[in-house]
Amino acid sequence: MTTDAAAMTRAIELSLLGANGCAPNPRVGAVILDPHGDIVGEGWHERPGEPHAEVHALRAAGDRARGGTAIVTLEPCNHHGRTPPCSATLLEAGIARVVYAVADPTSDAQGGGASLAGNGIDISSGMHERAARAANQEWLTAVARRRVHLTYKAAMTIDGRIAAEDGTSQWISSASSRADVHRLRGQADVVIAGRGSVLLDGARLTARDAAGRLLDHQPLRVVVDSQGRTPPDAPVRNDDAPTLIATTAEFGAGDDGRVDLESLSRVLFDRGHRGALLEGGATLGSAFLRAGLVDRLILYVAPLMLGSGTSVINDLGLHTLADATRWQLDDTTILGGDVRLSYTLEDK
C-alpha cells in the first residue's frame, strides 16, 4: 500500500519528466492508486496538445482505477482546450478521490476541484504544495505575472568576477558546471544573451550532451541587439535552433534607449514561452535585475580569485541597505571544484 504523501512525492518526480517541451502548458505529474492503495498508473504531461498527466495515468491503470484515488501535482483542469477537461475524464474513469497539490491559478482551467466535489468526488488539496510549486515554478510565475519566468545564470570567481581585466573568461567554471548549463538550456523554453557576449564568445546557445551532440529539445535563442547588428554568419544564427534578434524596432526602447526588457519578457510569454535562461554578461544581467524581471539566480562559484576584472553585477541603483533585494538560498551543489548556488527572489 502506498500513502497519499508517498504517491504525491512520486507525482512530483514524474512532473519533472515534462521539463522539455511542455510550454505553454504546466509540468504536471499524476499517480493512480487502486482502492487498496497500490499504484496502478503513472503519467506526466509531455507536450502541448497531447494528453494530460491524468489521462496517461488513467490509461495505464485501466479498470483498476475505478473506486481509486488520483494524486495530481496541479488541480485537474476544467476546460475544453486541445484536449478534454481532466475533471470529466476522472469522473468517467470512476475515480472516488482526488488529491492535488496546487490550485490552478488560470481563469480558463481552474475549478476542476469544485466540479469534481460537486459530483460527489472526495477532494483534498495542498499536499506537498511547496515541493510541487518548486517543480513547476517557471509556469506558475509566468502565468501569474504574464511574462516569462527568468533565471539568470553566471559563472564567477570567489570574489565575484566573471572575466579578468584583459577580458579572458574561458573557462572560469569547471567542465561539470558547463555540462550543468547545457542541462539548464535543455529545460528552458528560451535562452537569452546580449550581442556583445554572443560575438565575444562565439556562442551558439544550443543545448548539447557531453559528446557535443545536440539534444532533442532546443530553446529559442534570443539575442538582445538594439540595432540588429548581429552578423548573419554568427554561430548563434546557425540552423541548430531558432533564433530571434530582439531589437528596439520590434520591442521598443527603455529609458536607456536599449531594448525594452519588460516588453520583450511579455511578448515572449504571449508567444507561448514560459521559462527563460539568461546568459548575458554583467550589463544585460544587471539591466534585467534593475527592471525586476529576474526570478531565480544560479551562480557557479569557481575556486579562483582575480581581485580585478568584470564584476558579476553592475550598479543596480540601490544606495542603502534597506533597499537591498533579498534572495532565498534553495540549493547548494558541488560540481567538480565549483559550488552551484541557486536562489529565488523572496516576495516583499
Task: List SSEs in N-to-C order.
Answer: HEEHEHEHEHHEEHEHEEHHEHEEEE
Structural class: alpha/beta
CATH homologous superfamily annotation of the largest domain = Dihydrofolate Reductase, subunit A
Any idea what the shape is?
Answer: elongated
Largest sheet: 8 strands, mixed
Q: Please state the CA-atom Rg, rounded to the nearest Å.
A: 22 Å
Query: What is the overall number of helices?
Result: 11
Q: In words, what does this structure look like?
A:
With about 350 residues, the protein is an alpha/beta fold. It has two domains: about 5-135, Cytidine Deaminase, domain 2 (3-Layer(aba) Sandwich); about 140-345, Dihydrofolate Reductase, subunit A. Helices cover about 25% and strands about 25% of the residues. The strands form three sheets. It has an eight-stranded mixed sheet. The chain has a five-stranded mixed sheet with strand order 2-1-3-4-5, sandwiched between helices. It has a two-stranded antiparallel ribbon with strand order 7-13. Helix 3 (about 85-90) packs parallel to helix 4. The longest helix has 13 residues, at about 175-185. The radius of gyration is 22 Å and the shape is elongated. The protein starts with a helix and ends with a strand. Its cofactor is Zn(2+). Pathway: Cofactor biosynthesis; riboflavin biosynthesis; 5-amino-6-(D-ribitylamino)uracil from GTP: step 3/4; Cofactor biosynthesis; riboflavin biosynthesis; 5-amino-6-(D-ribitylamino)uracil from GTP: step 2/4. This is Riboflavin biosynthesis protein RibD.
